């Protein structure tokens, strides 16, 4: 039986930092409001496009895997802030890294995109259709945020993360996965644009509509159901789990989920204070940093949970 081993991981965080205090210089907001409600202290702002962030994360993950890009047979980029709709971000990455043998597509399930990509890539490897796949979550949300709207402007940031998955006979990687969509809640989180904003010199802002408290409830419900599903698939329980790595949208929401799933103290990956919500990039960045800081070690069992507009949800059991 084939498995999809995670052989490389990498991230890209643009160097420009925007703190809560910086935001308070031009918005009616404060660190005292933002920090306790969201867990966010600062976020990064990119001056380059999503495909460039994706490319840097990809190069780091390939170096970590010690893999020649020519050996890749598929690249999937999870993003909802593609520089252009056509051609996709994945083809820009393919060209930039010289992965001429790889198919390339973007996938949009909002903040759940990277996990959805991991689900697809793992399925492709486990069925034998693919052997070496690069998956990326990359976003440049600050490009389209309405900087006059404090409700949304304080929540998001830019960044990218990537993983290399390779076929192996050893039992590891994404062992169980559940993805779902609660379309009744389709309207509670919407970013209303359909054009390729960079190419057409778009310099306006997108109406960002969201109902924070409804998202909170639906996200916790969707993620805990998905977590229960993957526990059932594997016969594992929280006692077998070494770490929870969730989508970083809000610290209160993560704390709530961790409590519901009975995750022991100190086992939950949190980096939202540094980067805010980078949408599909939060998960691969969180994985990379969980390894850097020693929360995750070789052989560990990880449970991951995500949610995003749609309202999409997902959870997985990953053996590192
Ligand atoms: N600074 C100061 N005041 C603010 C700010 C701000 N940045 N934003 C809103 N307020 C004010 C509002 O105007 C409102 O004032 P009022 O009571 O006088 O009308 C008050 O604060 C409360 O606003 P709410 O929107 O009700 O704030 P809430 O307590 O719901 O917190 C939050 C908002 C943090 C977004 C919360 O709903 C939440 O955690 N939601 C889940 C996460 C989420 O929705 N993330 C965005 C989508 S992202 C994703 O990853 C899919």
TrEMBL record:
Region (ACP-binding): 248-252
Annotated catalysed reactions: malonyl-[ACP] + acetyl-CoA + H(+) = 3-oxobutanoyl-[ACP] + CO2 + CoA
Cellular localisation: Cytoplasm
Pathway recorded for this protein: Lipid metabolism; fatty acid biosynthesis
GO cellular component, one term: cytoplasm
Manganese as UniProt keyword: no
Pfam families named in the record: ACP_syn_III, ACP_syn_III_C
InterPro entries: ACP_syn_III_C, ACP_syn_III_N, FabH, Thiolase-like
Residue stretches making up the Beta-ketoacyl-[acyl-carrier-protein] synthase III C-terminal domain: 232-320
Residues annotated as domain Beta-ketoacyl-[acyl-carrier-protein] synthase III N-terminal: 105-182
EC number annotated for this UniProt entry: 2.3.1.180
Keywords of this entry: Acyltransferase, Cytoplasm, Fatty acid biosynthesis, Fatty acid metabolism, Lipid biosynthesis, Lipid metabolism, Multifunctional enzyme, Transferase
CDD domains per record: KAS_III
Gene Ontology process terms (BP): fatty acid biosynthetic process
Active site residues per record: 111, 247, 277
GO molecular function: 3-oxoacyl-[acyl-carrier-protein] synthase activity; beta-ketoacyl-acyl-carrier-protein synthase III activity
NCBIfam families: fabH, PRK09352.1
Function: Catalyzes the condensation reaction of fatty acid synthesis by the addition to an acyl acceptor of two carbons from malonyl-ACP. Catalyzes the first condensation reaction which initiates fatty acid synthesis and may therefore play a role in governing the total rate of fatty acid production. Possesses both acetoacetyl-ACP synthase and acetyl transacylase activities. Its substrate specificity determines the biosynthesis of branched-chain and/or straight-chain of fatty acids.
Free-text comment about domains: The last Arg residue of the ACP-binding site is essential for the weak association between ACP/AcpP and FabH.
Subunit structure: Homodimer.
Family: Belongs to the thiolase-like superfamily. FabH family.
Name of the protein described by the UniProt record: Beta-ketoacyl-[acyl-carrier-protein] synthase III
Source organism (scientific name): Aliidiomarina maris
Source taxonomy: Bacteria, Pseudomonadati, Pseudomonadota, Gammaproteobacteria, Alteromonadales
């Amino acid at each position: 039986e084939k498995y999809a081993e995670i052989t490389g991981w990498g991230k890209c965080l643009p160097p420009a930092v925007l703190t809560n205090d910086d935001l308070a210089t031009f918005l009616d907001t404060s660190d005292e409001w933002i920090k306790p409600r969201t867990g966010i202290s600062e976020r990064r702002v990119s001056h380059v496009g999503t495909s460039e962030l994706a490319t840097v994360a990809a190069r780091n993950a390939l170096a970590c895997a010690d893999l020649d890009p020519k050996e890749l047979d598929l690249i999937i980029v999870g993003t909802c802030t593609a520089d252009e709709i056509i051609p996709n971000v994945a083809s820009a990455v393919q060209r930039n890294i010289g992965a001429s043998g790889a198919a390339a597509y973007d996938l949009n399930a909002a903040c759940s995109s990277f996990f959805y990509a991991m689900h697809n890539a793992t399925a492709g490897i486990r069925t034998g259709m693919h052997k070496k796949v690069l998956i990326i979550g990359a976003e440049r949300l600050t490009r389209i945020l309405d900087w006059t709207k404090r409700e949304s402007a304080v929540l998001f940031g830019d960044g990218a993360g990537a993983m290399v998955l390779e076929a192996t006979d050893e039992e590891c990687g994404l062992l169980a996965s559940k993805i779902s969509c609660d379309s009744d809640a389709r309207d509670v989180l919407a970013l209303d644009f359909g054009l390729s904003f960079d190419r057409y010199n778009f310099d306006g802002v997108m109406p960002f509509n969201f109902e924070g408290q409804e998202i909170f409830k639906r996200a916790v419900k969707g993620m805990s159901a998905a977590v229960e599903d993957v526990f059932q698939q594997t016969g594992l329980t929280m006692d077998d789990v070494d770490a929870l790595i969730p989508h970083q949208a809000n610290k209160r929401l993560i704390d709530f989920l961790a409590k519901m799933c009975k995750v022991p103290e100190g086992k939950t990956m949190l980096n939202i204070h540094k980067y805010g919500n980078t949408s599909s990039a939060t998960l691969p960045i969180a994985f990379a940093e969980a390894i850097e800081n020693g929360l995750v070690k070789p052989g560990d069992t990880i449970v991951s949970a995500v949610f995003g507009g749609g309202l999409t949800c997902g959870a997985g059991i990953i053996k590192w």
